[in-house]
Every structure is written in C-alpha cells, then in structure tokens.
Amino acid sequence: MTMENKEVQKAQTQAVEGNAERMERRPVYLPATDVYERDDALVVVADMPGVTEKDIEINLDNDVLTLTGRAEFAEPAGFDALYGEFEAGQYERVFTLSEDVDREGIKATIKNGVLRVTLPKSEKVKPRKITVQAE
Amino acid sequence: MWPVMNRWELETDPFRELQQWQRQMNRLFDGGRSVSRAFPAVNLWGNADEVRVAAELPGVDPGKIDLTVTGNTLTIEGERVPEAAGEQDVVYRQERANGRFLRTLRLPFEVDNDKIEALYENGILRITLPRSEESKPRKIQVQA
Lengths: 135, 144
Fold this sequence. Notes:
The structure holds 2 protein chains of 2 kinds. By secondary structure, chain A is mainly beta. Chain A is 6% helix and 41% strand. In chain A, β9 and β10 form a beta hairpin. The model of chain A is unreliable at 1-16 (pLDDT under 50). Chain B has a domain at 38-81 and 99-135: Immunoglobulin-like (Sandwich), CATH 2.60.40.790. By secondary structure, chain B is α+β, with helices and mostly antiparallel strands. Chain B is 15% helix and 35% strand. In chain B, the strands form 2 sheets. A 4-stranded antiparallel β-sheet of chain B has the order 1-2-8-7, with no helix packed on it. At the A-B interface, β2, β3 and β7 of A face β1, β2 and β5 of B. β3 (33-37) of chain A pairs antiparallel with β5 of chain B.
C-alpha cells in the first residue's frame, strides 16, 4: 500500500454543492476536523456544537464520505439579541477515502458536540506480521 | 450580496464599520462557511432583568470550564484537552484547536453572582445571569 492511496483527501466541495442551489436559507459550516490513521482504522473527529445524534447523517457513497449535522439552536423568547457570533445551521464535510475501508464496521458517536467516526481498515490491508521460519 | 454600507454608522464609527465590512468580505470569499474568530464563539441576549449567554465549546469537559463574574464582566476560561492520538498514529489533518482558552465579555449591567446558572449540553454552554437588585432602575417619586 503506497502513501498516496492511504491518504485521506478532502474531496472537492462540489461533491455536495454541485451547481444546485440550496432551498433553505441556513448557513453551512465547515466543521474543524481531525483525521488520523491508527493501525487498524481511520478516525475522523469533527466539531459540531449543538448537534445531537438524531440530527446527524453519515453517508458513504463509493469512496466519498459525507458528514452532515444539523445544529438546532433555540433563541430565548422575550430577549433582545445583543451580540451574536453563531446561529443554527448545517455542518458539512466531504472526504474521499482510500478504498480499503471495512464498510460494515464503520462506527460513529457524538458526545458534547464532537462527532467521531471510526472507519476500520479492511482485513486485507491491516499490517500483518509474518514470521520467517528457519529450515 | 454586496456588503451594505450604512452611511450613518460610517459617520459615527468608521473603524467599526470598516471591521464589519471586512468581515462581510471574508464571508463573501469563503462562501459564508467559516469566519475565523475567538474561541469560544458567543451569543448574547438580554432584557431588563437578565442576560443570557451561549458559548460554543465542543468537546470540552464541563468540569474544566471556569466562569467568573466581576461587576459586569463575565470571563469564560478553560482547557480543551487534545484527543489521545497514539504515537504510532499518522495524523492527516489537525484543525481542532486544543489548549487553554479565555474569553471576557462585558455585560450590559451588573449581575447577581449567587443566581448565575450554567448548563452544558451538546457542546454548547448556556449561562443565565440575572440582573442584580442594586443595578435595577428605580423609580423616584418627585415630591411637590
């Protein structure tokens, strides 16, 4: 396995956006994401504050992994907005994976607004120790 | 989607207007997706009796968040502990910030320190700060 096909590349955003326009007027955020590779799996960790497990969608189409999270955010009633830096919106991130992921074993959890996706490597690419036997 | 220049504001505070314009331009260029800002991002609401603050603090242990109020200043302080990536792991992308953070906000009035409530849920910290009795406006009877 060469370095190039191991690497996780950020897919072009066109994959999600294309030329199609969005119907709803919600901001789309690019979540800050960490990606690292363990011996047995690829791990993707993305910040999605305000997103719960029911508002998350993970899609793997061929080798394109799409993470989508809808952050709902209730504005308090009877208050004036004094200052604002964030609002309800949609988190979206697309990655192209190498083909060596075990699709059945993909796991995702969300805790404290952080999404964590574990993509196990398929058996054939896991590092294997081969013992050389003396004759 | 051109930034709208408000002439009246320009006259009152050109620097602020310039900053606002710059923000709008930034937003324009990255398609409204990301704007670099202080951590944590905050929202503030208020009425005559209370201020409410919401802060985006994903992945922060609530036990590691310190809130301090002095007069009408609120300080949110804490630490985000990095994910434990093993030494053998190959890191491809590391965009999530880690380490200590501190944010100071000026509130519109003094608050009652004993009645402050904070709730951390889904990575968002919500703080309720009731106005202190002393700072509430008082009606004074004019005697004839």
